[in-house]
Design brief:
Elements (H helix, E strand, L loop, with lengths): L5 E5 L2 H4 L4 H15 L4 E6 L17 E3 L4 H4 L13 E5 L10 E7 L3 H5 L2 H17 L2 E4 L2 H10 L8 E3 L28 E5 L9 H11 L3 E5 L4 H10 L5 E5 L3 H10 E6 L8 H8 L4 E4 L4 H5 L4 E3 L6 H13 L5 H12 L4 H17 L1
Parallel strand pairs: 1-2, 1-4, 2-3, 4-5, 5-6, 6-7, 8-9, 8-11, 9-10, 11-12, 12-13
Helix pairs in contact: 2-14, 7-12, 10-13
Length: 366
């Protein structure tokens, strides 16, 4: 059996995000790497307040703390002494180690900068992203849709060095027989509220549509993510009424599982996803999913979600009608839940880790 000799993990993503999908993926990778004694490793560290990093226990003798000039360092190659003569270098966020004997690995999570960002931030990011594509010996995409985007946007990339390794889902998500302690988290009864999980700041996530669906269906809305701003609170109070929404910031996995279990359904009106982890989390917890039939979402959701055609005008009305059909018993929600649970079994972080290590081995052999 081929054995990896050395791997350098660049943990810069923890300094760039306090939380978020990419840092969650990186956390799941590192958590398993610590317990893996089949290869030598080095972790490049930066000071950070990331909530996932706080749960890690990286061996100090395998860590190298670098300068914390994140506004500059995020775009530059790390400057380290030659620790290994040969190694695989895998960065949490588009960095390359231009050192003899190093084979660089880059993970592509999505192309939101390409499709939805503008100005200088977009230009600088795309420069860094392109450089990583050019210099990487191997590229990991988190979905087949992301791989297709990659090959369309960067036609010079050799298809043979690209692999698809889907994200996983935490094993702690599961259906609960009883949810009596849900009231300690939110003021709504089990099965009575709509759920929105994720970023609200970027337009393509369509948080405003989730609010409109809640208003139309007359179901309260629970929001999980960053704390609400005063402007958001005022808008939600105006549209829904102060008694018809609740916010849970930085929910633990255990609490999020309870919230999924208690929800009438997860609303996922996003127009673009590289993967869409909340969809699989909800399915694994036995929570019905109503989402848009676009980007990677049908690939990830399988037949375990109600998918809405986003190309229709006023597709928020279609989403409201789908929720209403479940609410009125016109749609078999029990069957939908079962299909979602079965679909979620396709994904696990252990599988993601195993496939990532196998890809390291493949790239190091070449």
């Amino acid at each position: 059996m081929f054995v990896i000799v050395n791997v350098i993990f660049d943990n810069i993503i923890f300094a760039l995000q306090r939380s978020g999908g990419i840092s969650m993926v990186w956390y799941e990778l590192l958590k398993r790497s610590v317990a893996d004694t089949s290869f030598s490793k080095l972790y490049l560290e930066y000071a950070n307040e990331n909530i996932f990093y706080q749960q890690l226990a990286l061996p100090t003798e395998q860590c190298l703390l670098l300068k914390n000039r994140i506004c500059v360092e995020r775009y530059l190659s790390p400057h380290i002494q030659s620790v290994f003569s040969e190694a695989v270098f895998h960065s949490g966020y588009f960095r390359i180690l231009p050192q003899k004997g190093i084979k660089n690995i880059t993970t592509i999570h999505d192309f939101t900068y390409t499709y939805y960002r503008h100005g200088l931030a977009k230009s600088v990011h795309l420069w860094q992203e392109r450089y990583a594509m050019e210099k990487s010996a191997g590229i990991i995409c988190v979905s087949e849709h992301t791989r297709k985007d990659l090959l369309k946007l960067y036609p010079f990339v050799d298809e043979k060095k690209v692999t698809v390794i889907p994200n996983g889902v935490d094993e702690r998500f599961h259906p609960l027989a009883s949810n009596d302690i849900l009231k300690l988290l939110i003021p709504f009864e089990r099965g009575s509220y709509l759920l929105y999980v994720g970023n609200r700041k970027v337009q393509y996530k369509n948080f405003s549509i989730a609010v409109e669906v809640a208003k139309t269906t007359k179901l309260p809305l629970v929001i999980v993510g960053s704390p609400l701003s005063e402007k958001e609170r005022n808008q939600l109070t105006t549209v829904l009424g102060i008694a018809n929404y609740a916010m849970v910031a930085d929910a633990s996995v255990e609490d999020l599982n309870k919230i999924y279990n208690g929800a009438f359904c997860l609303l996922y009106p996003s127009l673009y996803e590289g993967f869409g982890i909340p969809i699989v989390e909800a399915q694994k917890a036995g929570c019905p999913v109503v989402a848009l039939n676009v980007s990677s979402i049908p690939e990830v959701a399988g037949d375990g979600a109600i998918l809405i055609d986003c190309h229709k005008k006023n597709f928020e009305n279609e989403m409201s009608e789908a929720v209403q059909s479940v609410k009125n018993g016109q749609f078999d929600s029990v069957n939908l839940i079962q299909r979602g649970i079965i679909n979620s079994h396709r994904f696990s972080w252990d599988k993601t880790y195993k496939e990532t290590i196998e890809f390291y081995k493949k790239i190091e052999r070449e």
